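Re: weekly structure request thread

Next one in the queue (264 aa):
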Amino acid sequence: MQRPAGPVSAKFAVTFAVAIGLGLSLAGCAHPRSADPETTGSIGLAPDPTPDGTAALWTDRYKANPDDPGTAMAFARVLRADGRADQAVDVLQRTMVQRPNDPAVAYAYGKALAEKGDFDTALRVIRAANSPRTPDWRLTSAEGAILDQTGQPQEARRLYELALKLAPEEPTVLNNYALSFTLTNQLPDAERLLRRAAADPRADGRIRQNLALVVGLQGRFDEARRIATEALPKAEAEANVAYLRAMLSQPNTWKQIEKAGKTG
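Done, posted below.
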């Protein structure tokens, strides 16, 4: 590596990673794809596992039972994974009308709206569904993620703390909290939170990939490779870390980093 992954480079690298569709993880970074709806910022709204089955299969299931919220939410996840965010929003909007007080539906709908970049509507949906008297930790964390996307990290972190009181050591909340710190270049704080999340048996491979990303951004590529290998096949993990190293070493990348630092 020609230059260390310092504070400004962390912000750029995360932005770059999301822009090419990584969802703030190393997954797939050796083979960048077109921009994902989770653009700069959809950090806290970590992608849900895509249901088994093809898009055609879930289209048929939804047509056969459009009023079932579970089917609708699963179909929307498939649509989002297929890059059809607008259709996912339409499906969930219909379900939300049918079940206006269902926090799971509100979470899915708000998440889909945020992926489209409609943060104002997403916030309204999330806040309307989240009772101050009996707050839901998923909705609370989702609101924090949207605030991170709109440049309000301090308020976002207050909500992550609240979500952790409601669901202690919940790995998805810790992941969101950590990625908030990653976007503001506070990599040691992000790493500490991601290690807590990754140590939880409920954590999935994407959290470990995010940990590998944050470790790699600090220039510890061998360690990042070891962590990534726990979540990915060895060859893919090595390719991803090599891609991250190359990305941070390119002269053009550093010019963009300097530009990003000037424009905030």
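Residues 1-37+153-264 form a domain with the Serine Threonine Protein Phosphatase 5, Tetratricopeptide repeat fold (CATH 1.25.40.10). The two ends are 25 Å apart (CA to CA).
Next request, please.
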